[in-house]
Design a protein that fits this description.
Blueprint lengths: L3 E2 L10 H7 L6 H4 L6 E7 L5 E5 L4 H10 L5 E7 L2 E2 L5 E10 L3 H12 L6 E10 L4 E10 L3 H7 L1 H4 L5 E8 L3 H8 L11 E9 L4 H17 L7 E6 L3 H4 L15 E9 L5 H17 L19 H5 L1 H14 L17
Antiparallel strand pairs: 1-5, 2-3, 2-4, 6-8, 6-9, 7-8, 7-11, 10-12, 11-12
Length: 347
Amino acid sequence: MKLMRIATGSCSCVGLLGGSLGGGVGRLSGLHGLVLDSLISVRLMLPNTTIITASKTENEDIFWGIRGAGFNFGYVLNATYRIYDQIPNGLHLNADFKFPISQVQSYYERLDEIAKSQPKELSILTLFNYDADLNETIITANAVYAGPEAEGRAAVQFLLDQNPLVSNITTVPWNNLLDTVGFGFTGPAICMRGNRRSQWVIGVNRLDPDAYTTASGIFQDMITRYPATLDSSIDVQLLPTQGIIAVPDNETAYPWRSLIAHVLLEFKYTDAELDGIVDGYARMIRDVIVRTAGTAGLNVYVSYSHGDETLEEIYGEQKLGRLAKLKKRIDPEGLFDAYHALPTAYP
């Protein structure tokens, strides 16, 4: 039997289809693009209860809008995806590291260099987080190489060269990655209910070491002053872009194909009285990162958004005119306005 795989996102909490509607960023994006790029068709119930099929050859305009703003147009009843051969034999090199936070400047200087020639098989996620075992704030890095082990070991050597406190290199089947990577930081525990969660994101086209050094200082100040936020993190998702940029920008409603990374600020705590304080720290960090992001203002991946962003920051000014016309035709009464509702006219 021939073994196959499907492009997936980067978090075990999110269903495949739900993630696809906003984009679907993941470790195989260098090979297969966004998860929505693997969509072949969807069966959709429109707001007027009509059931249609949308694809590149049927209801093409709706299929365009579904891929990037899909929560605005109806219920997706089912979907058909393209699948791919497992290479090599479904095994991926998984490399996890812990570094002292004092190395943040040199770490990001090297990461910025890697980003300029990142192999399509290599993804790198870097966190600032508090480590209970080490009793200190650290840099946690996870690198996954979707190719032969020897090539993967060569690709992650730059991380070993930076003298990590802890390292762990294994081979993992593709369907076990999300439970394994980063010492398990995207496994089932991340999906546990009960905490307050405040999520923010900045899309970037460059990694400025000074900015990330400053951001790490702000983060450390927050968790020191407010220990209830110790489970928080800053997660820089440097995912390969070759498969993403291979798809023409006008083919889908997704607006940010040129971004090289998404900087995800994830704040977890239990006391509602900290909401305003956490928001203040989040805005400080966001402002620091966006100033050196190499983008024209704030670019926001809709599935990682906080909720205070403008329509242009989420959907892109260049996409909003067409999206608004589609919204007016498909959902003029706004029945599907629960999540980042589109306008029916723009500008």
